[in-house]
């Protein structure tokens, strides 16, 4: 089975708070922004990765880091935006994002 790799023209590259490059493929924002409360929130995904209030490693999957940033004004009330990033030795990419 051949694995499909999105082309660079459809991928955004973001720097996280440590300077590591994080991929945000074109498919991810479509899925994330498909949730009504996340419509128009894509810039905040980048803000949260670059300047989180806190970053924690997932207790279940240590290769996943959870970036949290508090936003006073959101479509659903004051909430934290959580952006989950999977970090491998040679690649980091956004898995999902949501308010909680």
- Structurally, how many domains make up the residues? 1
CATH architecture: 2-Layer Sandwich
The CATH topology is YaeB-like fold
DSSP strand count: 6
Kindly report the spatial arrangement of strands forming the biggest sheet: 3-4-5-6
Provide key terms for this protein.
single chain; four-stranded antiparallel beta sheet; globular; disordered N terminus; alpha+beta; 100 residues; 15% helix; YaeB-like fold
Describe the protein's topology.
Blueprint: E1 11-15, E2 21-25, H1 27-32, H2 42-50, E3 54-57, E4 64-71, E5 79-88, E6 91-99
Antiparallel strand pairs: 1-2, 3-4, 4-5, 5-6
Would you kindly provide a brief summary of this structure?
The chain is α+β, with helices and mostly antiparallel strands and 100 residues long. The protein contains two helices and six strands.
Describe this structure in words.
It is a single chain. It is built from 2 helices and 6 strands; from the N terminus they run ββααββββ. It has 100 residues and is α+β, with helices and mostly antiparallel strands. The chain has one domain: YaeB-like fold, CATH 3.30.2310. Strands 3-4-5-6 form a 4-stranded antiparallel β-sheet. A two-stranded antiparallel ribbon has the order 1-2. The protein is globular. 21% of the residues are buried. Mean pLDDT is 89; it is low at 1-7.
